[in-house]
Amino acid sequence: MHFLTILVAVGVAEVRAEQWVGLKALPLHDQRPVLLACLDTDQPESRGIVRRLNRIARSRTFRVLAVTDDDIERTRAFVSRTRAAFPVGASSDSFAEHAGGGTPSVRRFDTGAVAGTIVEAATLAELLPPVSITVEEVGQLADRGALLDIAMADYPKEQRMKAWRQLHAVLGESDPAEFVRIVDLAVDDEPNAWIRGRMRFDRARAAGENPQDNEPTELSKARAAYYAQPEAPKWVVHDVLFRWYDAMGIEDLRRLNERHLGSGHVDLLVRNVIISALMDREGCPGARALLMERLSHEQEREIRMGIAVALKQVCTVGDEEVAALLDRMALKEPFVLWTRTRMEDAAHKIRTGEGKSR
Prior knowledge:
358 residues; Glutaredoxin; six-stranded mixed beta sheet; elongated
């Protein structure tokens, strides 16, 4: 068992682990306060908190350490996956002493505080250093490591998005296989659905898969046909529906939807207006049920995207049945840049209430 002694101004706390990953020489008289994290290498939440700890560690305001009771191989894989910027101790018998109520947990050791105090998530966020790089400056970086330090840490989403796009610009042609490997390692741990969508899209491009996400949708072609000849008699059902959908009940909308399940332009436009009509029925069980049914059967990707947005509007916060359906459909969705992203974003917001008015 290897002992790592945390020296504070007054008092000493020992942290023990069989092996340390990423441990370099620590100044013997380093008097900075210490953050000690207890992590589970299989836990998404533990991987998530490393993103925040990485920024704090690189700011050098605190000494950051972590321990886990997992073995050395799993710990090495965890450090590689998260790019942990601080030492992580494997098979630590200090883990149980400091983990408290579970993982991930963080303790802060200040002057003389041998036992340390629990740091809540909100408090940890307050310890983040100021953002020292602009989006434009991220776009000028060419070093892979520097870009990953931003992309895989708790920077604002705009900086992370730019870092991933710049990394694709740097590696997409010179080493596309490496870009694919990095995305595969990191994509599931990225908390923002829109960034995950861009990562998946650029990964497909790097892998030579020629993704079609930015090609015109069938619905957009239907709109173009409508605007080219808006007076044509074939549009009459669409025009009537557009004017009067507020007065139609759920069963009327359901029956109309069933009469327009084809791939023709009129059918697509009618189904799209029906989704708009359902989106306005917040808290309506019938609207929720019809949207869930249509999500599972809709063939047009832009309308699937609209259904995800409508479900976010109609459902109450915490509707796990709908959030789980969106997650399942997202996993099967071939259009990753917009449609899958909308589904994942809607599922997240239904679970958390983020971005909803109630």
